[in-house]
Amino acid sequence: MPLSPEQLAEIEALRASPQPTLRAVAPGMEKHLYTAQEVLDHGFVRVVDYMGDDAAICQAARVSYGKGTKSVQNDKGLIRYLMRHWHSTPFEMCEVKLHVKLPVFVARQWIRHRTANVNEYSARYSILDREFYIPAPEHLAAQSVINNQGRGETLTGDEAARVLEILKSDANRAYDNYEAMMSDEGQQGLARELARMNLPSNIYTQWYWKVDLHNLFHFLRLRADSHAQYEIRVYADAIAKVVADWVPAAFGAFEDYRMGGANLSAQALDVIRRRLKGEEVTQENSGMAAREWREFVDMIEG
């Protein structure tokens, strides 16, 4: 179960007792407050609190630039200008606090994004639940032969069944020993802070994660990308849907300029200009290394 009965009761109580406020609210985000979006087999993402909206981004920009923004006809145009020119501080005026339940190995990848505030469930004080991430068969894949950090072909048949059985049995055996080490029936029992070290990295943890919109966009640019690991990408995809409702103008600009756009090196830009003039440009006369050339060709030719 992604949410415990206690968490469900807390959410229902909060949603049943709305409070009046004078602060600006984003209607698209209000519908997400406290509602858990299920992710993977036992995980979830839910919005706990937020601050700001599209208007807050524009408000901050106009305070900063004054008359310099008077030529922008509307908020959407201003936001697109800010995104296009890599402005950051106006987007930092919006913040969101998320409650996330996720496998430990995903959390260790996620925590690399250091520009956020995090408070994680402590296995020093509490006992972790017997909940493990077990991939669906379609997400079991062999090691890629061309990418050292990626997946290759999907496992099938007996091989997939063998791997799934190992994952399940190892996780449950480790948890059995975790419980046994802490047992106080006729023995002292090992401290929780030591017993936890025997748990597998596919066990679920939880945390509160608070981040501003600028740094959240950076997270989404990397983790909602098709090349990101599936298990973190599905969390990023769930968060992206929330952000699209929260700040639709900013998210639209983000999709255009960051997710759907591309950054070109001086060499790549030179190649495009030469091609537009009718010159035949190859990797050999482009000045690019072979790998960079392949990436460039994939980008412009799809």
TrEMBL record:
The keyword NADP applies. The keyword Transmembrane does not apply. Binds 4 FAD per tetramer. Each FAD binding site is formed by three monomers. It holds the Pfam family Thy1. GO terms for biological process: dTMP biosynthetic process; dTTP biosynthetic process; methylation. CDD domains: ThyX. DUMP binds at Q109, W110, I111, R112, E120, Y121, S122, A123, R124, R196, R223. Transmembrane segments: none annotated. Keywords: FAD, Flavoprotein, Methyltransferase, NADP, Nucleotide biosynthesis, Transferase. One of its GO terms (molecular function) is thymidylate synthase (FAD) activity. Its EC number is 2.1.1.148. It comes from the Bacteria. It catalyses: dUMP + (6R)-5,10-methylene-5,6,7,8-tetrahydrofolate + NADPH + H(+) = dTMP + (6S)-5,6,7,8-tetrahydrofolate + NADP(+). FAD binds at T89, R112, H113, R114, E120, D212, L213, H214, H218. Its cofactor is FAD. Gene3D superfamilies: 3.30.1360.170. Catalyzes the reductive methylation of 2'-deoxyuridine-5'-monophosphate (dUMP) to 2'-deoxythymidine-5'-monophosphate (dTMP) while utilizing 5,10-methylenetetrahydrofolate (mTHF) as the methyl donor, and NADPH and FADH(2) as the reductant. Homotetramer. This is Flavin-dependent thymidylate synthase. It comes from Falsihalocynthiibacter arcticus. The lineage of its organism: Bacteria, Pseudomonadati, Pseudomonadota, Alphaproteobacteria, Rhodobacterales. The gene is thyX.
